[in-house]
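FIELD: query
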Amino acid sequence: MITPNLHYADLKSSYLFYNIAQKTKAYLAENPDKKLYRMGIGDVSLPLAKSVIAALHEGVEDQAFKDRFHGYMPECGAPFLRTAIADYYRSRGIELGDDEVFVSSGASDELGDILDLFDRSSSALVIEPAYPAYVDANVMAGRKIVHLASGIDNGFLPEPSENAKADILYICSPNNPTGAVFKKEQLRKWVDFANENGSVILFDAAYEAFIEDEELPRSIFEIEGAKTCAIEICSLSKTAGFTGTRLGYTVIPKALVRHGMCFNDMWVRNRTTKTNGVSYIIQKGGAAVFTSEGQKEIHENISYYKENARLLMEALDELGIWYCGGKNSPYIWLKCPNGMGSWEFFDLLLKEIQVVGTPGEGFGACGEGYFRFSVFGSREDTVEAAERLKRLLR
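FIELD: result
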């Protein structure tokens, strides 16, 4: 009889967002006349930028003509898109080779797939509160997980320590769920720590485009020494509205070597074995994101979401509720009022004002007592949700 992967039995009974979906489904079944104001899952509400849509249409048209038709794409990404992404980094003063950029079907997929590069005996450090997939992907692989708690005392941005030693170091900045952003000097400590211990940082930069403070790093490769210890994983989902279109990219410097093995070469071998590449049409649309017009359009959308954040932050300020995030991130992380538990607060908001957020406990034990709002909803819903919050908690 075949033996299944027994590590799946170590997973929590259900995924955080599945639990939320079940609770909201049950509430609507009992209250079909109610409208929900959804500020939980980080899905966008604005359509793709006009230049992206035009490029997607062009890609579709190309497929109708023999001399422009594209079948299988290069597994590591179309050269035109790899160059566009590398140019995007170069425009920010980060020198990369085109062949250090890999096109993916999205950051979520890549965060799981990238673990193929590490032996199962490798340990993984997760700074909590954390995106649940960091933990679950390593539980599935049977890895030892080191949990590094963060909190208000360190602004949810802990420093490395002897207790934080591990082979794989997850860092997300701007952070999901807290919205906190590491400063350069803080990231430098993590880079030095990784190089000293032979660790590899998996840097989740899915929300880098939301950083408006020029003093804050948008890439781990702004830090000297990062090319010998870091892999950066990025997404166009929140940057450019590709949640339903699925596209991202990963940067693996050729200087990243452990035990004589180059991680860039390893990833080429992995991708050419396990994938057939991302569709030409989607990559065509993705390349438009990195044009001057595309950048202008996506930042107009980001500004829209930032205004949503401002409205929610104003409401929380008026209520005297502690929070972080919002300014340089699409997430606002708040302390539940009156000492409430995070699921208790979730139920209160759902039943009393029909506002849906995300309980902090779902992001790890030290997230208990906190709550996350996403700012990707419509303006109308955000305005209404902010007013309802003030009426309920004033």
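FIELD: remark
Residues 83 and 98 are 5 Å apart (CA to CA).
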